[in-house]
TrEMBL record:
Regions crossing the membrane: 6-24, 36-56, 62-85
Gene designation per UniProt: pntAb
Biological role stated in the UniProt entry: The transhydrogenation between NADH and NADP is coupled to respiration and ATP hydrolysis and functions as a proton pump across the membrane.
GO cellular component, one term: plasma membrane
Sorted UniProt keywords: Cell inner membrane, Cell membrane, Membrane, NAD, NADP, Translocase, Transmembrane, Transmembrane helix
Protein name: proton-translocating NAD(P)(+) transhydrogenase
Compartment(s) of residence: Cell inner membrane
Span list, region Disordered: 96-117
Length: 117
């Protein structure tokens, strides 16, 4: 059991290093589409956790807790990813100048010409 756990942890650590190496080589212009694809993958992970949570017969409390934590973190990752992607896409929108209102001079306070209140 511990050999399998150690192998899985080693795969997790190595995949983290490989992921970092791959992502660091991506040009800045491709980060937004890459994040959108990653959000879709995390959505699949959340669905997989839900399926596993529903299909396991008589799961132990530890297994339920691990699946629940994975589900919560996956959901937070999906939501946060879409928020960040939306903000990044908002940076590329052109800002239109606000047209001046008619009668803008009328809304300015009148000059007092030396009068005090």
């Amino acid at each position: 059991m511990y050999d399998e756990l150690l192998a899985n942890v080693a795969i997790l650590v190595l995949s983290g290093f490989v992921g970092f190496a791959v992502i660091s080589k991506v040009p800045n212009t491709l980060h937004t589409p890459l994040m959108s694809g990653t959000n879709a993958i995390h959505g699949i992970v959340v669905l997989g956790a839900l399926v596993l949570l529903g299909r396991i017969e008589h799961p132990s409390l530890a297994l339920q807790l691990i699946l629940f934590v994975a589900l919560v973190f996956g959901t937070l990752n999906v939501i946060g990813g879409f928020i960040v992607t939306d903000r990044m896409l908002g940076m590329f929108k052109s800002k239109k100048p606000v047209p001046a209102r008619e009668g803008a001079e009328a809304s300015t306070p009148a000059k007092t010409h030396g009068q005090t209140r």
